[in-house]
Recover the amino acids of this structure.
């Protein structure tokens, strides 16, 4: 039987799941046997152990009671709730790492998959300075981003369609040197054989299809998932009519955005004006 390897350093959810599996294994219990005692399903136990579902305070307290761990799991669940990663995003990343096609749209900042380390660090540092996240949470974000970017190097590489609102390339982040390097990174990304890169110009105005960042994934079995997020919540949808509607809107956005050559030319001209 294949079991997913758990990396407790990946996130607070992953640490909780790894400890839960370890103690369950020590007692020789199956997921269903533990689930019966915790009054949930074996599927729920599996999702918690692999970090796909965050442990609730009620789940953590029951785990402490059943496994005799004092308040260890309750403390771990508090750490998981204090993460800077939006609820729903870890589940999305699992699918992103397996997708054969990734379509994304971003507003305001260059999307994470296309960020240079320096640009990403500047974004995280700004969030720390605003008091939105802690230094530790910033490190958590950067670690997860590094993992996501590394997953694009798998073979065969996924096809990545990226449409960036013009605001992404015109908003200065990290100073001139960081911004110049980031613009070069976008040019390099556009030159890859497995990418399509476009800029949605300001001139689109009200015709722009989306007002929030969006990801649409095509999986190996050709199922389609979407992930969108607001300031406080991420939402993953699978194979519903609304996902297909989003895909149609994305195609329309691509049709109205600048062609790749014109998009790269815009970046090149902007970079020439960056010291």
């Amino acid at each position: 039987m294949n079991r997913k390897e758990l990396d407790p350093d990946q996130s607070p959810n992953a640490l909780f799941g790894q400890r839960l599996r370890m103690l369950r294994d020590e007692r020789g219990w199956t997921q269903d046997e533990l689930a019966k005692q915790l009054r949930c399903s074996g599927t729920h136990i599996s999702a918690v152990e692999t970090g796909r579902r965050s442990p609730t305070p009620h789940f953590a307290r029951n785990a402490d009671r059943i496994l005799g761990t004092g308040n260890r799991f309750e403390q771990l669940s508090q750490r998981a709730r204090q993460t800077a990663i939006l609820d729903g995003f870890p589940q999305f990343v699992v699918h992103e790492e397996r997708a054969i096609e990734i379509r994304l749209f971003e507003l305001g900042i260059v999307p994470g998959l296309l960020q240079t380390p320096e640009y990403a660090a500047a974004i995280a540092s700004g969030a720390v300075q605003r008091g939105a996240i802690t230094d530790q949470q910033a490190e958590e974000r950067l670690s997860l981003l590094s993992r996501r970017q590394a997953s694009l190097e798998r073979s065969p590489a996924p096809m990545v369609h990226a449409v960036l609102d013009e605001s992404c390339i015109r908003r200065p982040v990290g100073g001139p040197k960081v911004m110049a390097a980031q613009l070069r990174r976008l040019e390099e990304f556009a030159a890859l054989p497995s990418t399509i890169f476009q800029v949605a110009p300001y001139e689109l105005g009200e015709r722009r299809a989306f007002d929030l960042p969006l990801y649409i994934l095509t999986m190996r079995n050709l199922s389609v998932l979407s992930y969108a997020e607001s300031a406080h919540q991420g939402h993953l949808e699978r194979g519903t009519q609304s996902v297909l509607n989003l895909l149609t809107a994305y195609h329309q956005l691509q049709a109205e955005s600048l062609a790749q050559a014109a998009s790269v030319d815009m970046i090149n001209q902007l970079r020439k004006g960056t010291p």
User: Anything to note?
Assistant: The longest helix spans residues 135-151.
